[in-house]
């Protein structure tokens, strides 16, 4: 069996058995390296060599966590929560509760979408907005799997479809890698080709919201560390300074292309203008880093996992075997290529990192099968995006878990990864296949 398949399967099975994701990635990397012909020492060397690639991401999330907790100390989240409480029923009217539910879902969906294209802060908004409203979600008996599905849709669909913010980065990677593989395309064609696959994601979202997680679910109300530290009410000055901090963080991140500098700029604005006290700096940053530490360790480990997979050289044979096995059958070949992309992204945890791995092989392979340029774009874009929703190592699943599990009642694998995998990867395969077979 191919080393990539072995590594990913081991990682996924261990994760589903509730083994810590970091250990699942490590054991999966060892299984993949050894089955791929690497010695134990070479596997460890490749793994540790790849860890450094995730250090910047880990520090970025740690700083963003500190920024989120710093803002929570200003009382802004409590102001948001009090506004929602005013909308909630005081006399048991179900219509008012349904209104609040809809507003919460729509607000979180809008923030997730904006975080990819309009205000490129990625998952930084989740630890800021989600933990303070958990007790409201509890009172409304909202299934947190629904919130995870909504957030993950907003973190994935926009960058796949729209060439703005993180979407521009994704589209540029697809454009450049296809050109390097010998097929020049127009950037504008990527949005057109990815429209049908994104419709699949929308179908998954609709199913999750209106069918799968429509029923109420009960949780125990627990005072989280963030909620417990919000003691003061936000003044007009706090609101103004917080807005300035958010603007400063966004501006610094865009100008420097660094989430670390963006978070640092936001934190400095809060302290310089007195919204937070300097003596609280250490406590705030430590609390924020602790909240986001899980994401950081998983992302670092995932980079080691990816390094081992690439060191085995098993990705090329995996794709080549697809060509040999389904030569002459265009429909099955398209499906098989999408599944290969799913396996690679599920293991690596990054669609952005998957595109360079598969584009060099998928372009000539697709041309050999007679696919059109638009169909090839759809195949590569969809194959790269597959697995981002549902992967234990993806920040599109780690982010929602970080916000929803601050009180220990939301499991990363069974409450975020499995639901998002079922609702997004399955329709994405289907609609990606339809796009590949119908685009001329």
UniProtKB/TrEMBL annotation:
<dbReference type="GO" id="GO:0005886">
    <property type="term" value="C:plasma membrane"/>
</dbReference>
<keyword id="KW-0472">Membrane</keyword>
<protein>
    <submittedName>
        <fullName>Sodium:proton antiporter</fullName>
    </submittedName>
</protein>
<dbReference type="Pfam" id="PF13726">
    <property type="entry name" value="Na_H_antiport_2"/>
</dbReference>
<feature type="transmembrane region" description="Helical">
    <location>
        <begin position="291"/>
        <end position="312"/>
    </location>
</feature>
<feature type="transmembrane region" description="Helical">
    <location>
        <begin position="332"/>
        <end position="362"/>
    </location>
</feature>
<dbReference type="InterPro" id="IPR052576">
    <property type="entry name" value="AA_Transporter-Related"/>
</dbReference>
<feature type="transmembrane region" description="Helical">
    <location>
        <begin position="120"/>
        <end position="137"/>
    </location>
</feature>
<feature type="transmembrane region" description="Helical">
    <location>
        <begin position="146"/>
        <end position="170"/>
    </location>
</feature>
<dbReference type="InterPro" id="IPR018461">
    <property type="entry name" value="Na/H_Antiport_NhaC-like_C"/>
</dbReference>
<dbReference type="InterPro" id="IPR032813">
    <property type="entry name" value="Na_H_antiport_N"/>
</dbReference>
<feature type="transmembrane region" description="Helical">
    <location>
        <begin position="55"/>
        <end position="76"/>
    </location>
</feature>
<feature type="transmembrane region" description="Helical">
    <location>
        <begin position="421"/>
        <end position="439"/>
    </location>
</feature>
<keyword id="KW-0812">Transmembrane</keyword>
<feature type="transmembrane region" description="Helical">
    <location>
        <begin position="260"/>
        <end position="279"/>
    </location>
</feature>
<feature type="domain" description="Putative Na+/H+ antiporter N-terminal">
    <location>
        <begin position="2"/>
        <end position="88"/>
    </location>
</feature>
<feature type="transmembrane region" description="Helical">
    <location>
        <begin position="97"/>
        <end position="114"/>
    </location>
</feature>
<keyword id="KW-1133">Transmembrane helix</keyword>
<keyword id="KW-1003">Cell membrane</keyword>
<feature type="domain" description="Na+/H+ antiporter NhaC-like C-terminal">
    <location>
        <begin position="150"/>
        <end position="433"/>
    </location>
</feature>
<feature type="transmembrane region" description="Helical">
    <location>
        <begin position="190"/>
        <end position="213"/>
    </location>
</feature>
<feature type="transmembrane region" description="Helical">
    <location>
        <begin position="234"/>
        <end position="254"/>
    </location>
</feature>
<feature type="transmembrane region" description="Helical">
    <location>
        <begin position="369"/>
        <end position="387"/>
    </location>
</feature>
<dbReference type="Pfam" id="PF03553">
    <property type="entry name" value="Na_H_antiporter"/>
</dbReference>
